Amino acid sequence: MENACKCIGFAHTIRKGDTLYLLGKKYHVRVSALIFANPYVDIYNLQPGDQICIPKLNPFS
Q1: N or C: which end of the chain has fewer CB within 10 A?
Q2: CA–CA dist 6, 61 (Å, integer)
Q3: What is the pTM of this model?
Q4: Which of 44, 47, 41 lies closest to 7, judged by CA?
Q5: Which CATH architecture fits 9-55?
Q6: pLDDT (tens digit per residue) in 23-46
């Protein structure tokens, strides 16, 4: 992916066993926020080495 993190947050490199649910729990982010922050990522086919954006927490949400 050219620039994995165009959102306000940071990039996470997918490792074997990672799922959006587990990443959401790890980083305290909703799965829907992960999906929204990564519109070009095939969430049903995450592969080790892929990068996704973990959005920065919004203190007002």
Answers
A1: C
A2: 21
A3: 0.79
A4: 41
A5: Roll (3.10)
A6: 999 999 999 999 999 998 898 899
